[in-house]
Amino acid sequence: MSTIHIPVLSKEAIEALIETGGKTYIDCTIGTGGHSLELLSQTPENVCVIGIEKDEQSLKIAKDRLMTFGKRIKFLKGGYEEIDRLIKPLDPGPVAGILFDLGMSSFQLDSPERGFSFRGEGPLDMRFDRSQDLTAKELLFTSTQEQLLDLLKKFGEEKWSRRLSRVIVERRDKKPFETTVELSDFIRKNIPRRAAHKTLSRVFQALRITVNNELENLKSGLVKAFNLLEINGRIVVIGYHSLEDTITKNFFRVLKKAEIALVINPRCARPSKAERMKNRRSRSARLRVIKKIRKISDEDARKKIEDSEFEKDWGEEEND
Ligand SMILES: C[S@@+](CC[C@H](N)C(=O)[O-])C[C@H]1O[C@@H](n2cnc3c(N)ncnc32)[C@H](O)[C@@H]1O
């Protein structure tokens, strides 16, 4: 049974955005519309939001929920990595704030037919954009053992990566994995019982990140978003695992060092105990805010992010 997503760190995100006092905001991951609903509710009539989303199903829910805001909200189907191209026809003028709420929503996680969760039975899909060719099933079927090892290590930080990549390839050469349950049962049989939950979370995270090219998209999205911002405009990023938070943190750090931006909350915001109790999915969230103080060219920004380094400092996101 699918659920509507509860927006994470909503108060902190909306406060950080509206402090700019601007008129135009972009919600790069509108999902089922939770953050945008708050943003529109807390701002005057002359404030507009542009919502971007890859997932048609989520976008439809957001449209229905936000219908009452009329012309104040516009929807764009697509990836934030193409934010510049997507928003061009709308010609929105200066943008005061851009929100990235990364990863998947509870709505997607709790829809077994989307294949994001190892709990429900569904096809091994995991695509945010269902018009894309690559699915998790295809990825598992076509990757070499080395490629699988690499993605499990890099995107899952999984200690059983070597063993799992070998046994998965041996098994799929005889019979491809079709469903989430087939894959998770197989993994459970090949690792110690006590490691099962964490390992399954990490493997599913690694497959999803790869299927959706999430980290590369985040890098492009941040660079392009920064270029769209007006001076004093802000980017707010909510990340759920170390890989995406590290990209954000490093990007912000290099812009700060180049005196192009100010980091508003260097220590990042975390959900309160009350929020964590109310919404399990918020537990690993970290929110970071940057304020633009000078312009930078696309090429300069890309170079800066390419130069920044990955660091590991906290664990995988929750898949339950
Ligand atoms: C955590 S959810 C956002 C939830 C939303 N803030 C809300 O309150 O309902 C992340 C969303 O980002 C979408 N998404 C992931 N990668 C994307 C991309 N590159 N471009 C646009 N949307 C993306 C996912 O489909 C998902 O709906």
Q: Any descriptors?
A:
320 residues; alpha/beta; Rossmann fold; DNA polymerase, domain 1; binds S-adenosylmethionine
What does this structure look like?
By secondary structure, the chain is an alpha/beta fold. It has 2 domains: 10-107 and 214-307, Vaccinia Virus protein VP39 (Rossmann fold), CATH 3.40.50.150; 130-211, Putative methyltransferase TM0872, insert domain (DNA polymerase, domain 1), CATH 1.10.150.170. 45% of the residues lie in helices and 13% in strands. It contains 14 helices and 7 strands. It has helices at 10-18, 34-41, 56-66, 83-87, 106-109, 136-142, 145-156, 161-174, 180-189, 196-211, 214-228, 242-257, 273-278, 298-307; strands at residues 24-27, 48-53, 73-77, 95-101, 229-239, 261-263, 286-292. The protein has a 7-stranded mixed beta sheet with strand order 3-2-1-4-5-7-6, with helices on both faces. Strand 2 (48-53), helix 3 and strand 3 form a beta-alpha-beta unit. It starts with 9 loop residues before the first helix and ends in a 13-residue tail after the last helix. The structure holds S-adenosylmethionine. The site of S-adenosylmethionine has 24 residues, from helix 2 and strand 2.
